[in-house]
Each structure stands twice: as structure tokens, then as C-alpha cells.
Design a protein that fits this description.
The complex is a heterotrimer of chains A (360), B (296) and C (373). Chain A is of the alpha/beta class and 360 residues long. Chain A has two domains: 170 residues, D-Maltodextrin-Binding Protein, domain 2, CATH 3.40.190.10; 159 residues, Periplasmic binding protein-like II (D-Maltodextrin-Binding Protein, domain 2). In chain A, 47% of the residues lie in helices and 16% in strands. Chain A is built from 17 helices and eleven strands. In chain A, the strands form two sheets. In chain A, strands 4, 5, 6, 7, 8, 9, 10 and 11 form an eight-stranded mixed sheet that branches. The N and C termini of chain A lie far apart (76 Å). Chain B is mainly alpha-helical. Chain B has one domain: MetI-like fold (Orthogonal Bundle), CATH 1.10.3720. Chain C is α+β, with helices and mostly antiparallel strands and 373 residues long. Helix content of chain C is 23%, strand content 34%. In chain C, strand 17 and strand 18 form a beta hairpin. The longest helix of chain C is centred in the middle third of the chain and has 18 residues. Classes of the chains: A alpha/beta (360), B mainly alpha (296), C alpha+beta (373). Chains B and C meet through helix 9 and helix 10 of B and strand 6 and helix 2 of C.
């Protein structure tokens, strides 16, 4: 009896030792080909614990509260910058990232706005913020010349009013909407001047009565079901809505357009928290992601562009060839980025946003 | 002496799960937001001893409360929440009372089944049930499709993303909290009281208003509080079913915490919300106590 | 001055206040009242008496209007009550549980029925005051029902049901919840109030002593049927059946068969024993089975053989000393038991008869009640 117990304990101890190396990844939901996760485990022998979130705010709260227990997290650029400032991340040890040479300099340079010198993070996916359009319905209301690739589709009150009954949704994210509003009224979208930002209030208040809802996730289903006509949202989400509608074969045709006036570019970045329990394994995971074929597999699965130049030769044609995912060289020049607001401006922005949303 | 541990248990519970967290929230509400982990200062450094504690205390202030008072957003959010909670409570009562009454009048052998049906929705997550309502109420949803099919309406009704959807959601979610206490009051009601009232010249309707309603008052009051208190701080329902004009304090709190990353102001909002809630909670307690005394 | 005898039921000129005409009441398959007729007269204090489940409460609830007869007719004051709801009947009821409204004061409880009549306030006040005085509750007017004693609650219930001055007051086990002493006091109070107000009372009770004490007439019920309707003394002294004789008071029932007929019958009742003699207006034939009912107080106990007709020998098995009277349980020669009572009219500490005494018992032929099978 004692002997059996001893062997069991010994076996358990061995098993634990064998499993000791693990890595905990916290990524956006629906944001990876799950086959890659199994592949990582077989290749490295490291146990992968994969967890998902659906808002930057939730991730940020966990990071700022400390002791999240995660080894790899995926914040969006603007959030990343603030979190770096708060001391939430550790610098990457690039000597452990043998695939680092694969990164696409165009994206790395732009992402450096949030992470100077690309010291803390690598780009995972990137995209734009633009217009999701139920083409048939919008053309029925606004005519065949409907400006479906222009900010004026929603920011011009005349258009918004006509589309109101059919339904307009807008991201509930001032960081995304205010730059677009600034762009529409001809100001610098990256302005941090409170006086300039205040100018958007009038523009937004003019269209607000025609906006059915400000939200950051419901518009995917709403678009796909044909409940609404236009959504100002994230490229990937709108493409997802397009695919869902196509799958459902419900006669709804959704198109994504980055506004011709210029579109905001966003970056989802992989970084390692300062208190990551398994920093070494985290680096192995990042290096795995930096592999050209792995990255291509991820993009082929989620229909987002990535920041990996070498991966492009492995991308499917419906990804690399879709200008909604990989814009042309010229269109790429038309994309802009935005710096995060400091605390004081952030409060002004949030307050303005609340005022706009509540309509008073 | 032996009674001590028994008395200590609820107090310990209250201390650990209410008082200590509440003190922490109060403490954060007196701090200042900062870009750090955790995102506020000061934090208590016990290693520094007395001097550290004094330093810590000297850095606390009521700035955030002053800020709440200075911006009318917060007052309007509190008032709008109070209004939404009040209207929802009245609607829930109007719907819940007849249901509870029907249950209490039903044959004895049906009652457990009816009770089960009332409680049944709790077996699924609130989130799933609210999402189901989104499916029902949306422009292309079941309700609109059904009404159009019936020919009652030509164009779909805009229900989702309006205040009406919020009321529907709150009434639906909290209905059991209204039904159960009223049912329990009505079930205890001696049927001969109604007969006595009829015998003394009341019609059925009159007897209902003069006897049934006053005697189920404790249940009505308990039900109203059980709906009003959580509805006041409701967040999930207005954010999923409400439109952009739905202003509720729960959402403002969320924005302070997540969008502004201002934990101290968020904590101040929470403390004020709690103070607002304490008034009905105290009234509720007093009602309960009165009932207990009357029951003796 | 001689008070004229109150007996409207013997006066063909009197019209009954309440008439049950061939009333049947069914609950599903269960027959609660089986084709019964009954007349109750104005100013009567009428008792419906019987064990639980005999249908007495159903009779009362049909009068109040809470139940409708399945067949037959109920008239109150000559008016058919079919379809008349409780609130439109000239009837009030005092509930067994009193059914006082717990959220209203004693005053408001009594005023409740008056307010429904839409009387002016000063008239209501006057009437409530009168009721409070009648039931000696003036001091408690402001109290809530849970702040007064059981006896006081009972009086509130009475005051409330009398306040509207109904033609007919129904009382459902009105004294059931009171202790014995209070019950006895209240019985007389009830009679007093009934007399003062001149209201017709119908009382439902399972307590035969209570029914005997308060009522002008009693209807003894069993299994949905009325067995006998008569004044208390007739019910007691001239029961019409073994059931009634047995239900009311203490009695010894002896089985037998008719040996010879006459105004005074001879009844064979045991082998080797002389027949018992009983005077009866019944028309029985020789050989017919019958019963003799003998009340214990009608039985005399003797040391030696008396001269009476019905004299039997026996032995005292039990003695129950009750202060004013003593009850003996006597085993007769054939092993049957008989109960006898004697009043202790003289003051003595030693009993005349005691355990194991061999005695003689006797009664006159007018004291035994002869009952058909």
C-alpha cells in the first residue's frame, strides 16, 4: 500500500516537472487559427494556456491591477503606449527572437509611434477603421451615386438623416471616431489640442440624432442580419459581417471601404507583461508567431493584414489580393495613425463623447 | 459564551465581504489617478512605518467628490438612473402583482410548478437572456417579423436601442424578484378575510382593493426594493438593449473606470451610488422590522 | 308576569324567515347536503349541530352566499337567494377564525360594513360607538386586532357582524377558540345580545352543550342530512333516533325486541332477565327490534330491590365523583354496563355507594326512551 502511494507520488512529481514549462497567452477572441496553438505545443513541448478577451479596457484593467499571470498579451497600439508608460511591460530580448528579421519595416515604423524603437512589442495584426455598408439598401436610399467610400456617408447630416431609419451604428470609441470627425472637418486627426478637438462636438451633434447606437461589437451581427445600413467600425469586424451574411445567404451584401479622405490605422501588438511568470517561454511564443508560415496561417484564418513581410508569399490570394485587407501602396499612404491622449485630454475626450452619446 | 461564534459569523462575513472592500473603494476615491500599476497614488507603504502612514493620509483628499459635483453629467446620470429604476419598478409591479395573485389563487397542486416556471429563467445566464431579447426586439427580429406577418404594422418598430427596450429588459429580468415576495404575502392571506369583506358589503373588486392589496403591502414593498435597488445600478441591460440616449450611472461608472482609467473618480461615483442606495435599503429594513414586530 | 312562550314554529300563521326547500349541495361526487328542507323563524337562536363533515357549515355558507345550492331553493324573507351575491344579502356572518382585518383598528373593523353602506360619518360613528358599548370594547377602539386578547377579538368579530343590523346573523363556531370558562360566560352574553338586538341567529357548532344552552331550536345533522329539529329539551328528552340520543348528552343504549305492545311496551333485552318497560307513542309490533335509551340521571341506585318496574341488579365498577353529582358505571348481571348519576344533595365526605358494591338500579317506564331500529 505504502509502496503504491510512493510510486504514485513519484510519478506525479515527474509529470509536474515535465509539464513545468508553460506559457499563458491572452489574445482577442476569434483571432488565431487554433491549429497553430497545437503546433506550438508539439514543436516546443511547452504547454500553452490560451485565454481570450474582447476589449482593450478589460485587458488594461488586468494589467494595471498587476499580477495578471499572463505571459503574452495583445493590446492595441494606443493602449500599448500608455501601458508601457505605466511600466506594465518588459523589454523584448531580441536575441531570443531569431525570426525578428521577418518584420515588415513599413508597419514597424508606423507602430513605433506607440512603442519607440519597437523595444516592447511586435505587431500581430493591423487594420483600418472605416465604413461597413449594406450596399443595396444604401443605394436604394441615397441613389446609385451614394458616397459609400467617403466619410460624408455618415458625417454629412443630410446623408445621415436619410439613412437613420435604416440604421447607423458607430463605434463606441472616441479614440476612433474623433480623428475621423477631425478629418471630415479638415483638421489634423492626430491633434491633441483641446480647442481643436472641441470642434468635433458640433459635427457629431449634428448627426447624433440619426445614429441608432454607439457600440463596438453589436454592429457585426446587425450588419450581417440586415438590421442596419451603415456601421462605422473596424475593418476586420466588417469583413466578418460580410462573410457571415454570405454564409447565411440572406441576400445581404456588405462591403468594407476605408474612407477616401484617409483612414485611421490601428495595430494589435504582442508584448510581455513586466511580471510575466514565464518570460522565456513567452519569447519562444513570439518567435513562433514571427515565423513567416505561422503568421501567414493566422492571417489566412482571420482575414487581417499582419506586420510580417516574409509571410506575404504564403498568404492566400483572397487575403493579400483584397484591397480592404492589404491596401494598395497609394492607399497605404492615405492611412494615418494617432497618438494616445494624455490623461487630461483623455478626460475631455471622454466627457465630450458622453455628451455626444447622451445627446445633451 | 457558546453563542459567540454563531454571532461572529455574519459579522465576520459582513466585515470581510462588505466593509473591507468598501473601505478600499473609499480609500481609492480619495486618491489621485496616475499612470502606474495600480493606476492611482498614494499607495500605503507599511515598511515606512508611522511616517509612511502620515504621508499616506496627508495625500488623500476629496477632490474627486468636488469634481463629481462640478460636472452636471454625474447628477443627470444619477437622476436618469433613479427615473429609469422607478419607472421599471412600477412597471414590474403592475405586471408582477397579477401574476403573483394568479399563482396564489391557483389550485394548491399547481403552485410548485408555477413557482418553478417563475424561477426557471435564472437557470440561464442573464447575459444570454438579454442577448435573446436583442434577437427578439431588433428591427429584423422575431417580434417585428411576427407583427408584420400578422399585418399589425407595415414598417418595423424601433424598439431595440431605445429606452423602451431597457424597460422591457429590466422588467423581464427582475420580474421574479417582484413576484416571489408578493406571492408569499398573498399565499399567507386568509381567504376568510375576503369572504368577510364580501359579507360586509364589498363587491369582489372592492374587497381586492380594501383587503388584498393592503395586506400584501409588505410583499409589494419588498418586491419594489428588490427591483429598484439593483435596477438603479444596472449596467448590462442598458448597455446591450439601450440606445445612445440611455444615460445610467452604471455606464458612467464603467466609462470612468475603463475609458478614462480614472479609478479614483470611478470609486467616488460608486461611493455616491451606495449612499443613494442606503436610503431605500434603510427604509426596506425598517419595513421588514415592522413586519416582524406585527407578526408577533 | 308570565312570559309568553316563544315558539313560532308551532304557529301556522308565522312565516319563516329562512326556508331551505329540498336543497342539495354537491362538491364533485361528494354530496354535502342531501335534499334537505328546513324553516327558521325570525328572532330564533337556531343551532346547526353535528360532528365535523356533517354539512352544517355548508348550510351556513349557502345562507351567506359563499356557496350556491346544486338543487333546490333557499329563501330569506320570502325572497329567492339564487344568484344574490354575499354583499347583497341581508345577512352577516361571524367567522370561526373571526377574520378580523389585521391592518385595521378595532374601530375601523366595526365601521367597515357601515362605510360600504355609504352612511354619513356621524351616523357611522354613533353606530360604532353603540356596538363598542354593546360588546364592552370602547377602551380598545384604537387597537389593532393583534394587540387584544382572544376573547376581545371574538367580541370585535361579533360587533362587526352586528353593526349593519342584519336580519340574520350567522355564527360559525363562535366560541370554539375560547377556553371553557370564557366560553360559558360568552354564551350568556351572546344570548343577551341576541335578545337585545332582536336579530335572528344561526349558529354552527359541534359542541352539544353550547347548542343546548344558547338555542331556541337545534337541528342535529349527520352526513348531509338533518336528523332532528326540535327545542333543546325535546332533543334531550325525546330524541327521535339512536344517533341523536347518543350525540346529545350521556346515555346508555340497550338493544332489545318488542315482547308486548301498548302505550307501555315490554322489551326483551337479555336472556333470563325480566323485560324492561317503557312508555312510548311509537307504533311498534311484537318481535320488532328496538332500542331503549336511558339517561344516567334518570337511573336510581339502591341498596336493596326497589318496587319500580325496571329494577336490575348489578355491581359498581367505576365511580366518578364530580362534586355536584357522582356518576356510576354499573355492570349488570348479563355483563352489560349501565350508567347512573345521583346528585349529592347532602354534605357528606363519605359516599353512600362505592366500588364493588352490589346494588340495584331502577327507573320508571316514562324515563326510558324507546327508539325504533
Amino acid at each position: 500500500m505504502t509502496k503504491t502511494l510512493m510510486t504514485t507520488v513519484a510519478a506525479l512529481a515527474l509529470a509536474t516537472a515535465a509539464m513545468a514549462e508553460e506559457v499563458r497567452v491572452y489574445n482577442w477572441s476569434d483571432y488565431i487559427d487554433e491549429a497553430l496553438l497545437a503546433k506550438f505545443e508539439t514543436e516546443t513541448g511547452i504547454k500553452l494556456i490560451y485565454d481570450v478577451f474582447d476589449s482593450n479596457e478589460v485587458l488594461e484593467t488586468k494589467l494595471l491591477a498587476g499580477g495578471s499571470g499572463y505571459d503574452v498579451v495583445v493590446p492595441t497600439g494606443t493602449f500599448l503606449q500608455r501601458q508601457i508608460a505605466a511600466g506594465a511591460f518588459q523589454k523584448l530580448d531580441k536575441s531570443k527572437l531569431s525570426n525578428y528579421g521577418n518584420v515588415w519595416d513599413v508597419i514597424a515604423t508606423r507602430a513605433a509611434k506607440y512603442d519607440a524603437g519597437n523595444e516592447y512589442a511586435i505587431n500581430y495584426m493591423w487594420g483600418t477603421t472605416g465604413l461597413g455598408v449594406n450596399v443595396a439598401k444604401v443605394k436604394e436610399i441615397l441613389g446609385p451615386d451614394a458616397p459609400i467610400d467617403s466619410l460624408s456617408l455618415v458625417f454629412d447630416p443630410k446623408n445621415a438623416e436619410k439613412l437613420a431609419a435604416c440604421g447607423i451604428h458607430m463605434l463606441d470609441a472616441p479614440d476612433e471616431v474623433l480623428p475621423a470627425a477631425l478629418k471630415y472637418i479638415g483638421e489634423d486627426p492626430d491633434s491633441a489640442d483641446e480647442a481643436v478637438i472641441a470642434k468635433t462636438e458640433a459635427a457629431l451633434m449634428a448627426i447624433r440624432p440619426h445614429i441608432q447606437k454607439f457600440n463596438s461589437s453589436e454592429y457585426i451581427n446587425a450588419l450581417a442580419n440586415g438590421d442596419i445600413c451603415v456601421a462605422f467600425g473596424w475593418s476586420g469586424d466588417i469583413l466578418q459581417a460580410r462573410d457571415r451574411a454570405a454564409e447565411a445567404a440572406n441576400g445581404v451584401e456588405i462591403a468594407y471601404n476605408a474612407p477616401k479622405e484617409g483612414a485611421l490605422m490601428w495595430f494589435d501588438m504582442m508584448a510581455i507583461p513586466v511580471d510575466a511568470p514565464n518570460a522565456d517561454a513567452a519569447h519562444k511564443f513570439l518567435n513562433f508567431i514571427l515565423d513567416a508560415q505561422n503568421m501567414a496561417a493566422a492571417s489566412n484564418y482571420v482575414y487581417y493584414a499582419n506586420g510580417n513581410k516574409a509571410s506575404q508569399e504564403f498568404l492566400n490570394e483572397d487575403v493579400i489580393g483584397d484591397p480592404a485587407i492589404y491596401p494598395s501602396e497609394a492607399a497605404l499612404q492615405n492611412l494615418y495613425t494617432k497618438s494616445p491622449y494624455d490623461a487630461k485630454v483623455q478626460r475631455t475626450v471622454t466627457r465630450l463623447w458622453t455628451k455626444v452619446k447622451s445627446g445633451t | 459564551m457558546r453563542k459567540w461564534p454563531l454571532i461572529a459569523v455574519p459579522y465576520l462575513w459582513l466585515l470581510l465581504l462588505f466593509l473591507v472592500p468598501f473601505l478600499i473603494v473609499i480609500k481609492i476615491s480619495l486618491s489621485d489617478a496616475a499612470l502606474s500599476i495600480p493606476p492611482y497614488t498614494p499607495t500605503l507603504d507599511l515598511a515606512a512605518g508611522w511616517a509612511g502612514l502620515r504621508q499616506f493620509l496627508s495625500e488623500l483628499d476629496f477632490e474627486n467628490y468636488a469634481f463629481l459635483a462640478s460636472d452636471d453629467l454625474y447628477w443627470r446620470a444619477y437622476l436618469s438612473s433613479l427615473q429609469i429604476a422607478t419607472v421599471s419598478t412600477v412597471l414590474t409591479l403592475m405586471l408582477g402583482f397579477p401574476i403573483a395573485y394568479g399563482m396564489a389563487c391557483a389550485p394548491e397542486e399547481w403552485r410548485p410548478t408555477l413557482m418553478m416556471l417563475v424561477i426557471l429563467p435564472f437557470w440561464t445566464s442573464l447575459l444570454i437572456r438579454v442577448y435573446a431579447w436583442m434577437g427578439i426586439l431588433s428591427t429584423e427580429g422575431f417580434l417585428n417579423n411576427f407583427l408584420q406577418w400578422l399585418g399589425v404594422i407595415d414598417a418595423p418598430l424601433m424598439i431595440l436601442n431605445t429606452q423602451n427596450a431597457v424597460y422591457i429588459g429590466i422588467v423581464y429580468t427582475y420580474l421574479p424578484f417582484m413576484i416571489l415576495p408578493i406571492y408569499s404575502a398573498l399565499e399567507k392571506l386568509d381567504g376568510s378575510l375576503i369572504e368577510a369583506a364580501e359579507d360586509l358589503g364589498c363587491t369582489r373588486t372592492k374587497a381586492f382593493w380594501l383587503i388584498t392589496v393592503p395586506l400584501s403591502r409588505p410583499g409589494i414593498i419588498a418586491g419594489c426594493f428588490l427591483v429598484f435597488i439593483p435596477a438603479l445600478g444596472e449596467f448590462v441591460i442598458p448597455s446591450l438593449l439601450g440606445g445612445s440616449e440611455t444615460l445610467m450611472i452604471g455606464k458612467v461608472l464603467w466609462e470612468e473606470f475603463f475609458n478614462n482609467r480614472d479609478w479614483p473618480v470611478a470609486s467616488a461615483v460608486a461611493v455616491v451610488l451606495l449612499l443613494i442606495l442606503i436610503i431605500p435599503i434603510v427604509l426596506f429594513q425598517r419595513n421588514e422590522q415592522k413586519q416582524r414586530e406585527a407578526g408577533k | 308576569m308570565a312570559v309568553p312562550l316563544f315558539a313560532p314554529w308551532n304557529d301556522p300563521a308565522q312565516k319563516p324567515l329562512i326556508q331551505f326547500k329540498n336543497v342539495t349541495k354537491r362538491f364533485g361526487d361528494f354530496v354535502a347536503i342531501d335534499n334537505q328542507s328546513l324553516d327558521i323563524y325570525t328572532r330564533e337562536f337556531f343551532a346547526l349541530l353535528g360532528p365535523s363533515g356533517c354539512g352544517k357549515t355548508t348550510m351556513m355558507r349557502m345562507l351567506a352566499g359563499f356557496e350556491q345550492p346544486s338543487e333546490g331553493q333557499i329563501l330569506i324573507g320570502g325572497q329567492d337567494m339564487k344568484g344574490v351575491p354575499p354583499n347583497e344579502r341581508p345577512v352577516n356572518m361571524m367567522f370561526q377564525s373571526y377574520a378580523l382585518f389585521p391592518h385595521l383598528s378595532v374601530y375601523e373593523n366595526i365601521a367597515f360594513g357601515l362605510r360600504r353602506m355609504g352612511q354619513p360619518k356621524d351616523q357611522i360613528d354613533a353606530r360604532v360607538e353603540e356596538m363598542l358599548r354593546l360588546t364592552r370594547l370602547s377602551k380598545f377602539a384604537r387597537r389593532k386586532p393583534h394587540q387584544i386578547s382572544g376573547g376581545q377579538r371574538q367580541r370585535v368579530a361579533l360587533a362587526r357582524s352586528l353593526a349593519r343590523a342584519p336580519k340574520l346573523l350567522l355564527l360559525d363556531e363562535p366560541l370554539g377558540a375560547l377556553d371553557k370558562k370564557l366560553r360559558e360566560e360568552t354564551q350568556f352574553e351572546l344570548m343577551d345580545i341576541q335578545e337585545k338586538t332582536g336579530t335572528t341567529f344561526v349558529i354552527v357548532t359541534h359542541d352539544q352543550e353550547e347548542a343546548m344552552t344558547v338555542s331556541s331550536r337545534i337541528a342535529v345533522m349527520d352526513e348531509g342530512r338533518i336528523i332532528q329539529v326540535a327545542t333543546p329539551s325535546v332533543i334531550y328528552e325525546a330524541p327521535n333516533s339512536v344517533y341523536v340520543a347518543d350525540f346529545i348528552g350521556d346515555v346508555t343504549i340497550i338493544e332489545g325486541s318488542v315482547r308486548s305492545v301498548g302505550p307501555v311496551y315490554d322489551i326483551d333485552w337479555a336472556e333470563g332477565q325480566p323485560p324492561l318497560r317503557a312508555a312510548s307513542p311509537l307504533a311498534l309490533s311484537v318481535g320488532q327490534k328496538c332500542h331503549i335509551a336511558i339517561r344516567p340521571e334518570k337511573v336510581e341506585v339502591h341498596h336493596s330491590r326497589p318496587e319500580d318496574d325496571n329494577a336490575l341488579q348489578g355491581r359498581i365498577i367505576d365511580v366518578g365523583y364530580g362534586g355536584n353529582l357522582s356518576t356510576f358505571n354499573i355492570r349488570l348481571a348479563n355483563g352489560k354496563f349501565l350508567r347512573a348519576q345521583s346528585f349529592n344533595t347532602e354534605r357528606k365526605t363519605k359516599q353512600e355507594f362505592t366500588w364493588e358494591d352490589d346494588v340495584w338500579v331502577s327507573w320508571t317506564d316514562h324515563c326510558a326512551v324507546l327508539l325504533a331500529e
